[in-house]
Design a protein that fits this description.
- It is globular and about 60 Å long.
- Helix content is 31%, strand content 23%.
- About 11% of the residues have low confidence.
- The strands form two sheets. The chain has a seven-stranded mixed β-sheet with strand order 9-8-10-11-7-12-13, with helices on both faces.
- The chain contains twelve helices and 13 strands.
- Helix 8 runs antiparallel to helix 9.
């Protein structure tokens, strides 16, 4: 069995167990994360086998870059399972961290989220920030909000993701999905492009760099509905993290910009329910009010938590109040295969050739017997094709004169 086939089997087994992540490390058994808990599978993996598969997966063209950075990110469809793969160098050798991507169309109902969240995407413009720790389902919530738009509104949606985790089937909306590193070189370039592509809705998979945050806020401020994610443990921390990413001398302007365009912040975490045997999202939800905008503009982020406590009438939720709603919830959606939904990348994809410098023209040696290259025809000596027209030769000559 080849190394690739061995990895295929591990990914298939992890997917069958309902795992969200698969970890491969030389000298250790494979580990899978199922419903938040980590457990190991099988025997220790040989370093030579993982190195060989890494070379095959990364490819000769990108192998020097991997050796320089000691990491490589990509997305692949392996045995019908879409995966986000990080190849990394560790003390033991070359390992893998693989995220098993969902194969269903995310909706608020399927994710067991509160139905009131759909009201957030009814706005024509503004900024919605989804936050939470790694692996808390931020991307799934973004996808569910996009699906709410897709189900009922004819809007042009552009997504920038790294990588694409949910493939959308266009319904009422017109959806373009671009993967960073494959379809656009960076989030920054993708955002610059998007502002020239007539979007109604922009989805930014993750805001990591200040320039990405700046362009995202600019897009929200110029009449677009923008959805993005950031890592944080509360709504106030999410807003503070965006502002603190900028130099101190510009933070005042950023706070004003954020206050003007903010619609809502959703901070979520996943909690395992033993009675249901699934993980359900718990959310803290902040909506924009005059008081919230004032706190953001003045940098009083510590006052936001108290405002969320008192803001139930404005659609705000504390974690505690949201837990109470979950305890009263009667209908649940349980994850499972959905063969009627599209899975994987589009069937037909035309890859552009990689950019390469134009080769310098070779100098002809004196006395060479090489055959001279035929030059391209100029306007004077190029053949002219004229479609037949009524009127004969006079009309032809008149057409040439014009």
């Amino acid at each position: 069995m080849s190394y690739k086939m061995s990895l295929d089997a591990l990914i298939s087994a992890a997917n069958s167990d309902g795992a969200s992540d698969l970890h491969l490390e030389p000298g250790l058994p494979a580990a899978v994360r199922v419903r938040g808990a980590l457990r190991t599978l099988g025997d220790p993996l040989p370093a030579r086998a993982l190195l060989a598969f890494a070379q095959e997966l990364v490819g000769q063209a990108d192998w020097p870059a991997f050796l320089e950075r000691r990491s490589f990110d990509c997305s692949r469809n392996i045995n019908g399972v879409r995966c986000r793969i990080n190849v990394l160098q560790s003390a033991r050798g070359v390992g893998f961290s693989i995220r098993i991507l969902s194969s269903f169309q995310a909706t608020l109902e399927k994710l067991n989220l509160h139905p009131d969240l759909r009201r957030l995407v009814s706005h024509p413009h503004g900024f919605i920030l989804v936050s939470g720790p790694t692996g808390s389902g931020k991307t799934s919530t973004l996808a569910a909000l996009i699906e709410e738009i897709n189900a009922s509104e004819a809007r042009h949606v552009i997504t920038l993701e790294s990588p694409i985790e949910y493939m959308f089937r266009a319904r009422a909306a017109y959806i373009r999905q671009r993967e960073v590193g494959r379809d656009t070189p960076s989030f920054e370039q993708g955002l610059l492009d998007a502002l020239r592509e007539d979007p109604d809705v922009l989805m930014v998979g993750e805001m990591r760099e200040p320039e990405t945050m700046r362009l995202t806020l600019n897009a929200a401020e110029t009449g677009h509905l923008v959805l993005a994610t950031v890592h944080s443990s509360s709504c106030a921390e999410a807003l503070q993290r965006v502002v603190s990413a900028f130099p101190p001398e510009t933070q005042g302007a950023v706070r004003g910009q954020l206050a003007d365009c903010l619609l809502a912040v959703i901070c979520q975490r996943l909690r395992y329910r033993p009675d249901l045997k699934i993980r359900v999202p718990e959310c803290e939800i902040l909506t924009s009010t005059a008081a919230i905008r004032s706190f953001v503009r003045n940098g009083d982020f510590f006052k936001i938590a108290a405002q969320i406590e008192m803001g139930a009438e404005h659609g705000m939720w504390t974690f505690q109040r949201y837990q109470t709603w979950l305890e009263s919830k009667k209908t649940w959606h349980f994850p499972g295969p959905e063969p009627d939904e599209p899975v994987g990348d589009p069937e037909e994809r035309v890859e552009l050739p990689s950019a390469s410098p134009t080769p310098a023209p070779s100098k002809k040696k004196s006395g060479s017997a090489a055959t001279p290259r035929k030059s391209a025809p100029t306007r004077e000596d190029a053949a002219i094709e004229i479609e037949p027209v009524e009127g004969g030769l006079k009309e032809v000559l008149k057409k040439l004169a014009d």
